[in-house]
Automatic annotation (TrEMBL):
Protein name stated in the entry: Cytosine deaminase
Keywords associated with the record: Hydrolase, Metal-binding
Domain Amidohydrolase: 199-381
Source organism of this protein record: Gemmobacter aquatilis
Molecular function, one GO term: isoguanine deaminase activity
């Protein structure tokens, strides 16, 4: 149950708080009054006034790095040892055995229903795209994007290993599928001998089709893996100017300062967006049998922010071999990112990393609490950050167009027939 019932029609919410940075101000939480009229935020009082008791109001979330096509396969494809390679091999086998259009569609829709109930309004998902999967998953995605229009704005990025990227092979066909579906060109980089020419091919294919790009980068605890530096160098040398996001970048955190500082200076110059996936990376990184992990797996978000790099946080995987848990809940991501990456006792503008920054990186409509913006809000019965993060906020109110939505989550049993 929501912690407070709101009337239908127009109304004014008083005695709210919101992060100052989301209103373009300095400071921590600031007082807020919101007028709702005709499904939008208004600049004058309307209808009855409701005292919200100091509750925190946030715009609906942007989740810029997810894997909807992998989601919820854990019951039939669990990770045998919790490692990255265990996840990679298990997902590959499950994809070959099970990923029909119907299987992918039902699991993706299940995740979308979860995200919507928790208060997310925009999602970018990566789609495994080794042929023939690209020709299966992208049409399914396009159907779901149309069906969910007005509730969740959706983008999709193809996902293939760097060894599959070239300007004359099957990846050209994948790039055309991405372009035909208004998608994002994506890949995973590894320290292979011909990485640089393949990156050049990748960016040229994106330029020719006018595509945003999104790359999985250095998801490892091996300090010798430094493909992010090569990516930034290539972008600068080519003058590649289309939006580029990179995810993970875990190895930066175990490199010496000379290496990571030089790399981040290049990333800042290249204007590359970075998204950190704290829950998944803490789950996978530094996992060794019978040994306590020595680090948290997250990248150098504080050092990035200090250089003016656009940093975001996102969900990543959900109940699949790469992450056994999660529910597409961005409040959980905020809470865990704050704990794992020590965002508390730090800059007061970190909330932008869950709203404004990812929207900017992806080109989604910027979230706003200003008059004229849609009344799309998440309101939590918490009067401070410690109250917000101490509990899961399961009684939050989610408003879409000023109307409280039904936040009931789908039952896992709905997918039981897919798990045999």
């Amino acid at each position: 149950m929501d912690f407070r019932a709101l009337p239908s029609g127009d109304y004014t919410l008083t005695n709210l708080k919101t992060p100052a940075c989301l209103s373009g101000q300095d400071g921590d939480l600031i007082p807020l009054t919101l007028h709702v009229a005709g499904g939008k935020l208004a600049d004058a009082a309307t209808g009855p006034q409701i005292d919200m008791g100091g509750a925190i109001a946030l715009p609906c979330f942007t989740d810029m790095h997810t894997h909807l096509d992998k989601g919820h396969i854990w019951p039939r494809a669990c990770n045998p040892d919790g490692t990255f390679m265990g996840a990679l091999n298990t997902v590959g086998a499950d994809r070959v055995a099970h990923w029909s259009a119907e299987d992918v569609r039902r699991r993706m829709e299940f995740s979308l229903r979860c995200a919507y109930a928790h208060g997310t309004r925009a999602i970018r998902t990566h789609l495994d795209s080794i042929p023939p999967q690209d020709a299966i998953s992208f049409p399914v995605f396009a159907e779901l994007r149309a069906e969910w229009a007005g509730r969740i704005d959706l983008q999709a990025a193809c996902l293939v290993g760097m060894e599959n990227v070239d300007a004359s092979g099957a990846f050209v066909r994948t790039a055309d599928i991405v372009a035909d579906h208004g998608g994002v060109l994506g890949c995973v980089t590894y320290p292979i001998p011909d990485l640089k020419p393949r990156l050049v091919d990748f960016f040229r294919l994106a330029e020719a089709r006018g595509l945003h790009t999104d790359i999985h980068v250095d998801e490892t605890g091996d300090p010798a893996v430094a493909t992010l530096r090569v990516i930034a160098e290539t972008v600068l040398e080519m003058g590649f100017a289309l939006p580029l996001s990179v995810g993970h970048c875990c190895s930066l955190a175990v490199q010496d300062e000379v290496e990571w500082a030089h790399t981040l200076d290049l990333v800042a110059r290249a204007g590359i967006n970075v998204v950190s996936l704290p829950m998944c990376n803490m789950y996978l990184q530094d996992r060794v049998a019978e040994r306590t992990p020595r680090w948290r797996g997250v990248t150098l978000v504080h050092e990035m922010r200090a250089r003016g790099i656009n940093v975001s946080f996102a969900s990543d995987n959900t109940r699949d071999p790469f992450y056994a848990y999660g529910d597409m809940d961005m409040i959980e991501v905020m809470r865990e990112a704050t704990r794992i990456a020590h965002l508390d006792h730090s800059a007061s503008d970190w909330p932008r990393a869950f709203f404004t920054n990812p929207a900017q990186a992806c080109g989604f409509e910027a979230p706003s609490l200003a008059p004229g913006a849609p009344a799309d809000l998440v309101i939590c019965k918490a009067r401070s950050w410690t109250e917000l993060y101490a509990r899961p906020q399961s009684d939050r109110i989610v408003l879409r167009g000023g109307v409280a939505i039904d936040r009931r989550l789908p039952d896992y049993a709905e997918l039981d027939d897919l798990m045999s």
